[in-house]
Design brief:
The complex is a heterodimer of chains A (281) and B (169). Chain A is α/β, with parallel strands linked by helices and 281 residues long. Helix content of chain A is 30%, strand content 19%. In chain A, β1, α3 and β2 form a beta-alpha-beta unit. The longest helix of chain A is centred in the C-terminal third of the chain and has 20 residues. Chain A is globular, with a radius of gyration of 20 Å. The N and C termini of chain A lie far apart (53 Å). Chain B has 169 residues and is α/β, with parallel strands linked by helices. Chain B has a single domain, classed as Cytidine Deaminase, domain 2 (3-Layer(aba) Sandwich). Chain B has three helices and eleven strands; from the N terminus they run βαββββαβαβββββ. In chain B, the strands form two sheets. In chain B, strands 9-8-7-6-2-3-1-10-11 form a nine-stranded mixed beta sheet. A two-stranded antiparallel sheet of chain B has the order 4-5. In chain B, α3 links the parallel β6 and β7. The chains are: A alpha/beta (281), B alpha/beta (169). At the A-B interface, α5 and α8 of A face β1, α1, β2, β3 and β10 of B.
């Protein structure tokens, strides 16, 4: 049995009080497929001890190429992705508290509201938008990761991805141009016709590692920087990840989509007029 | 039941800046932080700060026995704000030291009486007290309809980096 100090001695450069901070943080994991499973494993290695995990799906044969922690036999056993994530966490951190939610987060959002930080590892623009609306409503930083492979004509496939930190008070995914009405509408029009999208393990690893690095920095500030938005663009063809070019045009811009006063549960106010009226904010 | 308080960085900075300003005769300043409840039916209850309102200079009363005493106009103005917005209100002041702050004897005596006056005006909201220090905080929350107050198990300033100011957690 190793002591806590021995386990984390190689990350002690983060700061003297980093480990207690990481251990007390409650992390929400939405989506435990290719990206989310990588994030989960890394958080457990780092020593995070509080999780709320969400994914409605059981593992399928097509997940074997990229889902961290899946074992031969999990498909036959119809093991859920939240069970696999829990197994990965508990194997590394037996004392971790894991909220296991084999459902959509929308069907049981309460535990997610209590999180200090959410990792969004979801597939669609609409899912990202919905999660960001939620995270802003409850003042929770959201780290989004995603990747896609595009094929155009006879060109080689283009692999691209992103890591975004949406921090309450800072620019949102709409502000930075990642979410647009056009993208959402186009995706909605194609709903059900997209089929299985290409996914492979190595870009998920790059994106998840980068996201975990942002989370650790957000919690410990070991880099001693200050950021109110992160938008990193991944090019899987040349293996680079760099700040998205659009950020340079957004200096001084303030988010107009999520006013800081529009948080929490809607407030009902009854007027004093003879007819009862309710206004909701 | 647990409670967590989240404060946007801009509000936290505004509160600290105001509370550190000297007053002509009061030894310290106080203010009121507006807040909404989130996760009302769940655990933890969330207290999400939405605004900070300083107490006007002329609403302080000279009293050598306490750090700051405010008059009825200040309290009435705050009650009106609760009524107008439906939001809760937290008495905020600063203990000028580093480390975890504690409630003073005056806080323990006066704050329950103050909150008692807020609750009928905003029964659907959470009210209470937040005591700041230079780097930590303590919060006591009277949840909507809850008979007894609870100490917040975490107070977080939402910014880069996330700042956990303290609590029972």
């Amino acid at each position: 049995m190793t002591t806590i100090n021995e386990r984390f001695v190689r990350q002690s450069f983060l700061s003297a009080d980093a480990q207690p901070t990481l251990e007390r943080a409650v992390v929400g994991l939405v989506g435990l497929g290719g990206g989310g499973s990588h994030v989960t494993q890394q958080l457990a290695h780092i020593g995070f001890l509080n999780y709320e995990t969400y994914d409605p799906d059981a593992v399928e044969a097509s997940n074997y190429n990229r889902l961290i922690g899946v074992l031969d036999g999990d498909v036959a056993a119809r093991t859920s992705k939240v069970e696999i994530a829990t197994r990965v966490i508990k194997d590394l951190q037996p004392d971790a508290r894991v909220g296991v939610h084999r459902r959509r987060w929308q069907d049981d959002p309460g535990p997610l509201r209590g999180c200090d930080l959410i990792f969004g590892c979801v597939d669609t623009f609409a899912a990202r938008h919905e999660l960001e609306v939620f995270a802003r409503r409850y003042m929770i930083p959201l780290i989004d990761i995603g990747m896609d492979v595009h094929q155009a004509g006879n060109e080689p496939p283009r692999m691209a991805g992103q890591v975004i930190l949406s921090l309450p008070g800072g620019l949102c995914m709409t502000c930075i141009g990642f979410l647009t009405e056009e993208k959402l509408a186009k995706e909605a029009a194609l709903y059900g016709a997209a089929g299985g999208r290409p996914q492979v393990v190595w870009p998920n690893g790059v994106l998840a590692s980068t996201a975990v690095g942002i989370a650790v920095d957000l919690l410990t500030n070991w880099t001693r920087t200050s950021r109110d938005v992160v938008y990193l663009s991944y090019n899987g063809n040349d293996g680079t990840i760099r700040p998205h070019v659009r950020l340079q045009f957004l200096e001084g811009v303030e988010c107009q989509h999520y006013p800081e006063c529009e948080v929490g549960d809607p407030v009902m106010r009854w007027s004093s007029s003879t007819e009862a009226e309710a206004s909701v904010r | 039941m647990r409670a967590r308080v989240r404060i946007p960085a801009t509000l936290y900075a505004a509160a600290l800046a105001d509370l550190k300003r000297p007053h002509a005769f009061a030894a310290e300043r106080v203010g009121f932080m507006s807040a909404r409840v989130g996760n009302r039916s769940g655990d933890p209850m969330l207290v999400l700060a939405t605004g900070y309102e300083p107490v006007a200079d002329d609403h302080y009363i000279e009293d050598d026995y306490v750090g700051a005493r405010i008059n009825a106009d200040a309290i009435r103005a705050n009650m009106q704000r609760i009524l107008d917005t439906g939001e809760g209100s937290f008495h905020v002041h600063l203990h000028p030291h580093r480390g975890a702050p504690q409630l003073s004897r005056t806080d323990r005596r006066e704050i329950p009486r103050l909150v008692k006056s807020f609750r009928p005006v905003g029964p659907g909201a959470a009210h209470g007290i937040i005591v700041l220090s230079e780097d930590r905080a303590l919060g006591v929350v009277w949840g909507p309809g809850e008979p007894e107050p609870i100490e917040a198990d975490e107070i977080t300033v939402v910014e880069w980096p996330l700042r956990f100011l303290g609590g029972r957690r």
